[in-house]
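Recall the central idea of this unit: under ordinary conditions, the amino acid sequence of a chain determines the structure it adopts. In this exercise we apply that idea directly, starting from the sequence alone.
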Amino acid sequence: HLLQSDIKKIHVRMKHMNVIPFAEGNSIAIQALAGLGKRYPGIVDITQTHSFARLFALAMSKFDEAVRSSPDNKFILNKYADVLLRFALKATGTSQYFERAFENYHL
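Accordingly, the structure predicted from this sequence is:
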C-alpha cells in the first residue's frame, strides 16, 4: 500500500526528447535555404534578407534546444554543423558560422 508520505516523496523525472526541436530546426532550415536559393541564386548579403535571417535564427534556436537536450548526440551535432556550413557558404558576413560548424562536427 502507498501512504500519503510515499506519494509526496515521488518526483516526476522526464527526459526532454530532442526529436521535436531537431525536426523543427531541420524543417525551418530547409525552408529558409530553399527560399533563399530560389530568390537569390548567388551569394547573399544577409542584412538584406530579413525574413531569411529570422527563419535561420529560429532554426538555430531549435537546433540549440535539441543539442541542450542531448549534447553528446553526434547525429544532431553533425546535422546542425551541416546547416551552419550551408548558411555560411550562401551568405556574406557569416564567418562565425564556419567556426561554429567546425566546433559542432564530430566524426
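The chain is about 70% helix and 5% strand.
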